[in-house]
Design brief:
224 residues; alpha/beta; Rossmann fold; 8 helices; binds S-adenosylmethionine
Length: 224
Amino acid sequence: MGDSKAIVTNQDGIHEKLEEIVLKHIKHPFKKPYQQHTQDAFDKIDKVVQGFDGEIILDSCCGVGQSTRLLAKRNPKALVIGVDKSANRINRNVDELVNEDSCQKVDNFYLIRADLNDFYRLVLVAKWPVTQHYVLYPNPWPKSKHVKRRWHGSAVFPDMLKIGHTMILRSNWRLYLEEFSFAISLLKLTGEFSTVDDKEPLTPFEAKYRASGQECFQLTIKIK
Ligand SMILES: C[S@@+](CC[C@H](N)C(=O)[O-])C[C@H]1O[C@@H](n2cnc3c(N)ncnc32)[C@H](O)[C@@H]1O
């Protein structure tokens, strides 16, 4: 058994300020200048994307990139791009892939170190043909005062929801997904809840939570 602790929060439901926060972000587009390191990383990968004739799968907050590799293996014709702001995680060697066919090499993926607060906006401007957008186990920020650090409380949220045809969001904190679902309703979008029961975990966090007996949840959002 794992020893991952269940989420503890001082909220007893959807954050009381969430509607106000999301509506403000919808009304006032996020215009903060891009950080240079993200712009540089984007420019390099954008050349690859523009020269690629096929679907792009975006794996946001990919951590060590286990999900990026698995998605690449499962979608051999797609180009899968994992993005994480942590150089340490991105550069960690992930030979620990726990998938049964992990010895099979795949090369249709890239791991990019970038801040998604900027990267999402650059993807939109460049009109990447993203089909699936994965956001697997984002940092929950469970304290009420940190609501704006959750993706649905961030200024880039409305832009994030313009990317891809389908968004797949997973968390071990159901309230995170409930808040996300409420936030997308303000963009006239809806999502479908399910419980994660994949035979093989898609990410190390998923493996850790499930080994600790925690339920993991998925919200699937049809964008286009
Ligand atoms: C809880 S970890 C989950 C990692 C992986 N998806 C998994 O399930 O194993 C959340 C990840 O989000 C990344 N992250 C948080 N904010 C980010 C941002 N603004 N831009 C890019 N990555 C971010 C962190 O560096 C961290 O690797």
